[in-house]
Amino acid sequence: MNGRNTSEPQVPCSAGQLFLQPLWDRLRTREALTQSPVFPAVFSITTYLGCCLPFVVLDLLCPWVPALRRYKIHSNFWPTARLLLPCLGRTLYQHVAFAVPVTLLHWARGPALLPSEAPELRQLLCHVLGCLLLFDAEFFAWHVLHHKVPWLYRTFHKKHHENSPSFALATQYMGAWELFSLGFLDMLNVVLLGCHPLTVLVFHVCNIWLSVEDHSGYDFPWSTHRLVPFGWYGGVAHHDLHHSQFNCNFAPYFTHWDRIVGTLRSAQAK
User: Model-level pTM?
Assistant: First the structure.
C-alpha cells in the first residue's frame, strides 16, 4: 500500500477522519500483514473469491430452489461444476503465476511507509468514485479496441467470452494480458489521484464486487443499477447483453461512454 510517513501521530481534525481513524489504527497494528510482499495478491484473490461465493452458492441452490430463478437473467441456466472448476483453477493459476511475482518485484523496491492519519470520509468517497470513473473510461477504450481489432480479440479477449451466459466465477476467466492490463489500470488510477492506502483497499473491494455482480447473472431488487438513478449505471442485464451480442455496452459500469459513441443498448431488466 502506498502512503506517506509521519513521525508523530496527529489528532484527526475532522468528523470524517474521526469516523475512519479507529479502522485505520486497527489496520496499522497489522502492519506485518499489510506490508508483507504477497499481501496485494492474497488480498485480491480472497476479495474476489469472497465476492463470488454468494453467487456460487445461489447457482448451486438454483436447481433445487425454483424461486431463485425469478432473479436470474437466464432462468434456465446455472453453471455446473464442469464450468465452475476451470474458472476457479484459471483464477488461482493466474494469481500464483503472475500476480505474486509482480507484487514481489514491487515489494523489492522497499515497503511503503503508512501515514498515521486516516483519510477524511468525504475524500475517501470522492477518490473511490474518481477511480471508478477513470477505470470505466480506460476499460471502455481498451474493450472497444480489443473487440474492433480482430487480432486483439482472437489473441487476448476471446477467452473471456467463452462462458456465455456468464456467471460470477467467470468474471476473471481471461488471459494473462487482460488480467495484467486491468490490474495496471486499477493501480494507475490510485496513483494518479494520490489515494490514501485505506482508500486503495476500499476501491479494490468496490471494483471487484461491481465486476463480479455484472457477471453474476442475477438481477436483484438491490442490485447496483437499481440504486443508481437516471440509467447512469448499466448493471448485470446491461453487461449480459454485451456477452450475448458482442457489439454493444462496452463500458464495465457506467453508461455515458456507450451513449456518447452510440454503442449503448438497453437491456430490459427483469
Answer: 0.90
